[in-house]
Amino acid sequence: MRIAVEDGLCIGAGNCALTAPAVFDQDPAEAVVVLLDPAPPESEREAVELAVQRCPAAVIHLLS
Amino acid sequence: MTLPTLPLPREWELPFDPPPELALLRRTEPVVRVACPTGIDAWLVCDYAGVREVLGDGRRFSARPGQVAHALKSFDPHSPVDGQFSRLDGAEHIRIRRNFAPQLSHARRLDELRPLVRQITDEAIDRLLASSPPVELHVTFSRWITTAVIAELIGVPPADRHLLHAAAQALFDTNTSPEQLQVALTPLFGYLYGLVGARRADPGDDVLSRMIVHSADSDRPLTDDELVMMNGALLIAGFDTTASLLSHGLVALLSMPAEWDKLCADPSLAPSAAEELVRYLGVGVGLLREATEDTVLGGQQIKAGDYVVAAVQSANRDPALYPDGDRLDVTRQPGAHIGFGHGAHTCVGQQIARMELITVLGALATRVPSLRLAVPLSGIAFKRDTVVRGPASLPVTWR
After folding, report:
1. Would you call B56 and A12 a contact, using CB atoms and an 8 Å cutoff?
2. What are the angstrom distances between the C-alpha of B29 and each of B23, B26, B260, B300, B301?
3. Angstrom distance (rounded) from CA B178 to CA B78
């Protein structure tokens, strides 16, 4: 699984870090998404897919 | 030709459901022209895919007219935006959100705030259990808790909290005129200018102080006007929407005892129960957008400048999201509902609201499992003439 984020449009809602904390974090200054693991294991797929759907700003992309 | 009227929730007929007309439209004509009660005409979109598309695309669908200008007479969709962040688009709006987010929706910050919400909830339940049933739960419990949480976060002492209640009463009343709204907001906004000055001089650890300190290092620090507007919005929306959802949710759970019993048997279901209530009941009046260009939505041709009402609650009941979406199920695996809205303007306080709902539902199910409505469901009076839906009062009893 490969993931990319467009942090320029991130509003820091926090849903990704709360849904898939092993894959996403937030930077301390603006709470903007930080991608911890651009190629997480398959075991994270369900959580990542949910994080993609729950991202209000649609800035998380599942590439494969 | 006279347009059909925008269907709005009628809790006194159907306490928990969107207007049934919307379920029909979702199947037959998910994008349809309607007349709104404030005098504007709009496209009503009521299916999940369509609502998600509109709210998720701020480039094609601007927030400029105001989130609820289709329902509130005090909102003029043509008025100057004047820095109101809920009406900003694009980079200007993202700047404001990035001043909110570190205080309200950073996962680690939420861990710091959890003990406060627990303490306020425990205090409210201690008081409830020390009283003799029946009692009224909406004002004395739900609204008390959510007021205390947001006021403590921003640092508004108990003696000043009546200012929030008066402002919310006027802001969310569908019949308030623009002039009446200005008058009604003046005491709170005047108070907040004083608070901003005090916190600039002597910052504490509250949200307002943290916003001041945080933005001071940025290219464009927040102005006093912006700080007043941001914190005023948090104070007003922060207590009333969450309290109303909590009370409305409790009416639903207590009138569907199988769901309440499931939660009491396993209070660790509180997170999924809270999420389900937001999906089931959230944003009944919908959200307004304005098309920025000629475009197509659900097969309908939309012109630049046309208004669009996104029927959020109907979207969350769309069988495309859940085949049995009209059923309340506290064990439902929380998915991609849009009960806090969607897109860049999604509820800025949603993580705090979640925390409050989860904490209160879990604590009530643990400590007061015998909680019951003190009157039949048909005897619950629901608020009318407001965009923040829910019961006007919530009489309950327990053993």
Report:
1. no
2. 10, 6, 36, 10, 13
3. 13
- B:42-101 residues touching chain A, CB 8 A cutoff: 56, 94, 97-98, 100-101
Which of the residues in chain A have pLDDT under 50? none
pTM for this model (two decimals) = 0.97
pLDDT attached to residue B206: 97
Q: Evaluate whether B21 touches B29 at the Cβ level (below 8 Å).
A: no
Distances (CA, A) of B382 to B72, B126, B302, B391, B392: 18, 27, 35, 4, 5
Calculate the CA dihedral of residues B21, B23, B25, B29 and round it to 10 degrees. Answer: 180
ipTM of the complex: 0.96
Q: State the Cα–Cα distance between residues B155 and B152, nearest whole angstrom.
A: 5
Residue B334 has pLDDT above 90, yes or no: no
Give dist(CA B68, CA B238) in Å, integer.
Answer: 16
CA distance, residue B99 to nearest chain A CA (Å): 7
Q: What one-character DSSP code corresponds to residue B159? A: G
Task: Give the burial class of B267: count Cβ atoms within 10 A of its Cβ; 0-12 exposed, 13-18 middle, 19 or more buried.
Answer: middle
Picking from B102, B107, B344, the nearest residue to A30 by CB comes out as: B102
Residue range B158-204, pLDDT digits in tens? 999 999 999 999 999 999 999 999 999 999 999 999 999 999 999 99
Q: What are phi and psi of B199, to 5 degrees?
A: -75, -30
B338 to chain A: closest CA residue: A54
Per-residue pLDDT reduced to its tens digit, B77-86:
999 998 899 9
